[in-house]
Amino acid sequence: MSRKVLTLVLIRKLNEVLLGFKKRGFGINKWNGFGGKVEEKESICEAAARELREESGLVVLPVNLEKIAVIDFEFVGDPVILEVHVFTSTKYEGHPFETEEMLPKWFDVQNIPFDDMWADDKLWFPLFLSGKKFKGYFLFKGHNIILKQKLVIVSNF
Ligand SMILES: Nc1[nH]c(=O)nc2c1ncn2[C@H]1C[C@H](O)[C@@H](COP(=O)(O)OP(=O)(O)OP(=O)(O)O)O1
């Protein structure tokens, strides 16, 4: 098994979360946070801030990103585990705009579009929205069926 390190950023206002509708690539046609692969010579936090800027137009200083989760995703038949580092922030600059990859939209926390998101999101968003930190593991069959799952609350990483 090898690992690929990815980032995922969920920007929050008091009662809203910014999601992006993915127009291409992995997770196409799903609402998701903003993120992608960590490049050589950048920290995971720097990658998270860069991907957020590239995909939504919002600028966040890496120091203002709070890590809330590390989630491992395994897909049956695929030897690569996706290690997704999840961050949140309320301190951002700019206004979200549509990019080639994502269409951003604010959602009320009571009205998150779980039916059009990755199947794991509805299982861990309640932890995120209530301010918990956690580690997770999900085994997927295809892109829709979860065969195994684990969520453990942690005090830090
Ligand atoms: N099960 C899952 N639940 C979730 O909420 N986010 C997931 C997820 N599996 C992957 N992600 C996120 C992590 C990352 O932010 C994004 C995948 O980013 P990538 O940049 O690798 O995708 P792309 O295929 O767009 O790559 P590029 O073509 O290189 O931009 O999806």
Automatic annotation (TrEMBL):
Q: What top-level class of enzyme does the UniProt entry assign?
A: hydrolase
The Enzyme Commission number assigned here is: 3.6.1.56
List the catalytic activities from the record.
N(6)-methyl-ATP + H2O = N(6)-methyl-AMP + diphosphate + H(+); 8-oxo-dGTP + H2O = 8-oxo-dGMP + diphosphate + H(+); N(6)-methyl-dATP + H2O = N(6)-methyl-dAMP + diphosphate + H(+); 2-oxo-dATP + H2O = 2-oxo-dAMP + diphosphate + H(+)
**Superkingdom of origin organism:** Eukaryota
Which keywords has UniProt assigned to this entry? Hydrolase, Magnesium, Metal-binding, Nucleus
Looking at the keywords, is Nucleus present?
yes
Q: Where in the cell is it found?
A: Nucleus
In the record, biological process GO terms are: DNA protection
- Function in brief: Oxidized purine nucleoside triphosphate hydrolase which is a prominent sanitizer of the oxidized nucleotide pool. Catalyzes the hydrolysis of 2-oxo-dATP (2-hydroxy-dATP) into 2-oxo-dAMP. Also has a significant hydrolase activity toward 2-oxo-ATP, 8-oxo-dGTP and 8-oxo-dATP. Through the hydrolysis of oxidized purine nucleoside triphosphates, prevents their incorporation into DNA and the subsequent transversions A:T to C:G and G:C to T:A. Also catalyzes the hydrolysis of methylated purine nucleoside triphosphate preventing their integration into DNA.
| Family per record | Belongs to the Nudix hydrolase family.
Q: What protein does this entry describe?
A: Oxidized purine nucleoside triphosphate hydrolase
Q: Which organism is it from?
A: Daphnia galeata
